[in-house]
Write a structure and sequence with these properties.
alpha+beta, Structural Genomics Hypothetical 15.5 Kd Protein In mrcA-pckA Intergenic Region, Chain A, Pseudouridine synthase, 3 domains, three-stranded antiparallel beta sheet, elongated, RNA-binding, isomerase, RNA binding, PsdUridine_synth_RluC/D, PsdUridine_synth_cat_dom_sf
Length: about 325
């Protein structure tokens, strides 16, 4: 139990707002529940959440210690009582989740609890598949990341050995990643390979593509094939050979076929023509093509997982 005495600067505010400020990790649903159950008391008695606080009031909080910790990415899961996840596959070692466009994989500098990793950890915590107070070091972690505005499958490891093996397989390119992309105009040829060099401007958080090597650049290779052409748009399946930042978006733009809805590398005119402000890119399929032993994950070798429905495919091509 923790006690707080209301000082001059806190007098006059509501009880629930004081608790929210004092215990930032406490979810709103638990705050309401704890007030109702009198686990949060005002001057030794139960009180309503809109009770006004006065100078010298005493507040007692019967709340677990972890909720009083300073907010960080490591404890953001505590803020989530109803995890929002679209699970593609799960077993005792890994979790494959369909990340929605607009969702961050991790916090982007400022603390945020509404990230994919926080929802995954909250889900595993609620399912008792992860007991953070009993773990010495490991917390469920992401093995790959996807841009905020891109939909797709993200791999999460439930234990340290699964994380080590999966990271090694991704590094050695034994996990094949396929994307669906809608671009402007027909590709010529209809299937092929985009090869070039990418260098990143960290200040602008933007990459640039060159046909020749320049200082600081890295090779970038993307295979593609056309699946459909309709109404001035092409649906492509792209396979990453290398995994550079914004690789598909930047290479398609450099090739003269910008991604539909892409606000950074795309065509504003084309985006306005189709009324599209969400980029039509989805990491929809994973193939675990292990070439060497995968230890505890060997059972995944040769298996393929994909997202059953991709909205922009149905919207523009009526296929999936």
């Amino acid at each position: 139990m923790k006690e707080f005495t209301i000082e001059k600067n806190d007098a006059g505010q509501r009880l629930d707002r004081f608790v929210t400020k004092t215990v930032p990790l406490l979810p709103a649903s638990l705050l309401q529940k704890y007030i109702r159950l009198k686990r949060i008391k005002l001057n030794g008695k139960g009180a309503k959440q809109d009770a006004k606080l006065a100078l010298g009031d005493n507040i007692q909080m019967y709340i677990n210690d972890e909720f009083f910790e300073a907010p960080s990415e490591e404890n953001a899961y505590l803020k989530i009582t109803e995890p929002q996840l679209d699970i593609v596959y799960e077993d005792e070692n890994i979790l494959l989740v369909n990340k929605k466009a607009g969702v961050l994989c991790h916090s982007d500098g400022a603390w945020s609890y509404n990230t994919l990793i926080a929802h995954i950890q909250a889900y595993l915590y609620a399912e008792r598949a992860w007991r953070p107070r009993e773990e010495n070091a490991f917390a469920p972690a992401l093995c790959n990341r996807i841009d905020r505005n891109t939909q797709g499958i993200v791999i999460a490891a439930k234990n340290a050995e699964a994380l080590r093996v999966m990271n090694e397989k991704i590094k050695n390119r034994e996990v094949e990643k396929y994307y669906l992309a809608v671009v402007s105009g027909p590709m010529r040829p209809a299937a092929g390979k985009l090869e070039g060099y990418i260098f990143k401007d960290a200040v602008k958080n933007q990459v640039f593509v060159s046909d020749r090597s320049v200082a600081g650049s890295k090779t970038a290779v993307t295979e593609y094939r056309t699946l459909a052409v309709q109404n001035g748009l092409s649906l492509l399946e792209c396979r990453l050979i290398t995994g550079r930042t914004h690789q598909i978006r930047a290479q398609l733009s450099h090739a003269g076929h910008p991604l539909l809805g892409d606000g950074k590398y795309g065509s504003g005119k084309t985006n306005r023509q189709y009324g599209e402000n969400g980029q039509a890119l989805c990491s929809y399929r994973l193939v675990f093509g292990f070439k060497t032993d995968a230890g505890i994950l060997q059972y995944l070798s040769g298996r393929e997982f994909k997202i059953a429905k991709v909205d922009f495919v149905e919207k523009y091509f009526n296929i999936n």
